[in-house]
Amino acid sequence: MVVKINADECVACGACADVCPEGAITVDDIAVVDPDTCIDCHTCIDECPSDAISE
């Protein structure tokens, strides 16, 4: 299961993209996860300062 970004909570800080070991997250107005690249490691969930990412 790929992680989900809560658009209402995401502040587009890029912390999740910085720690993603697969480079599966890009950030523009909000973070976006590429489901084909995400390995579901949840590193981004742990790093998100606004708790905008969930399983």
Give a structural overview:
The protein is α+β, with helices and mostly antiparallel strands. The chain has a single domain (4-50), classed as Alpha-Beta Plaits. It has two helices and four strands; from the N terminus they run E-H-E-E-H-E. It has helices at residues 15-19, 43-47; strands spanning 4-5, 25-27, 31-33, 53-54. It has a two-stranded antiparallel ribbon with strand order 1-4. Strands 2-3 form a two-stranded antiparallel sheet.
Q: Into how many domains do the coordinates divide?
A: 1
Give the mean pLDDT: 96
Please report which band the strand proportion falls in: under 5%, 5-15%, 15-25%, 25-35%, 35-45% or over 45%: 15-25%
What's the helix count?
Answer: 2
Largest sheet: 2 strands, antiparallel
* Envelope shape: globular
What Rg, in angstroms, do the CA atoms define? Answer: 9 Å
Highest CATH level, the class: Alpha Beta
Tell me the span between the first and last alpha carbons.
7 Å
Report the count of strand segments: 4
Q: Which blocks of ≥5 consecutive residues have pLDDT under 50?
A: none
Instruction: Output the helix-strand order.
Output: EHEEHE
Q: Considering DSSP H and I runs of 4 or more, what fraction of the residues is helical?
A: 10-25%
Strand order of the largest sheet: 1-4
CATH architecture: 2-Layer Sandwich
Structural class: alpha+beta
Enter the CATH topology name. Answer: Alpha-Beta Plaits
